[in-house]
Design a protein that fits this description.
With 130 residues, this protein is mainly alpha-helical. The chain has a domain of 88 residues: Winged helix-like DNA-binding domain superfamily/Winged helix DNA-binding domain (Arc Repressor Mutant, subunit A, Orthogonal Bundle). The chain is built from 6 helices and 2 strands; from the N terminus they run αααααββα. Strands 1-2 form a two-stranded antiparallel sheet. Pfam families: TrmB (PF01978).
C-alpha cells in the first residue's frame, strides 16, 4: 500500500510553516483535494451512502465512487453492506478515525523515508557512480 508523497507537495509542506491536516493528508497519501473533502465529509457523516455523499459534496456519484475507492485503497475509509427491508442492499462508508489516520500517515511516511534512504545509500556505489 505504499504511496509515494509527491515531491512538489512535500516541498510545499516544508515551505508552509503551519501545514494543516488536509495538506499533510493529501501529501502523504498522494490524494487529491476532492478525496480529502470526501474523507472529511465521511468523518462528520459516518455511515453515508454514495448518494448521500454526492449530495453533501455536490459531486456526481461516479466521482464520489472513485474518491471512495481511493480512500479505501489508502486505508482511510471502510465500506459495509447493509440489507434493505425492501430487498437488496446498499453500501455505507465510514472514515478511518483521525487517530488511526495519523498512525497511517506516520507509517506511510516512515516507509517512504526508508525507501529514499536506501536510494541515497546506493548513490556512488560500484554500479552507480553518480
Amino acid at each position: 500500500m505504499r504511496s509515494d508523497p509527491s515531491p512538489e507537495r512535500f516541498r510545499e509542506l516544508m515551505v508552509d510553516g503551519e501545514p494543516g491536516f488536509e495538506e499533510v493528508l493529501a501529501c502523504v497519501f498522494g490524494v487529491q483535494e476532492h478525496e480529502v473533502r470526501t474523507y472529511l465529509t465521511l468523518l462528520s457523516e459516518p455511515g453515508s451512502t454514495v448518494a448521500e455523499l454526492a449530495g453533501s459534496l455536490d459531486r456526481d456519484r461516479s466521482n464520489v465512487n472513485r474518491s471512495l475507492s481511493t480512500l479505501r485503497e489508502k486505508g482511510l475509509a471502510e465500506r459495509q453492506r447493509r440489507l434493505l427491508d425492501s430487498g437488496g442492499h446498499v453500501y455505507q462508508y465510514t472514515a478511518t478515525p483521525v487517530a488511526e489516520a495519523r498512525e497511517l500517515m506516520h507509517a506511510t511516511l516512515d516507509e517512504w523515508t526508508a525507501y529514499v534512504h536506501e536510494r541515497i545509500d546506493e548513490f556512488g556505489g560500484p554500479d552507480n557512480r553518480q
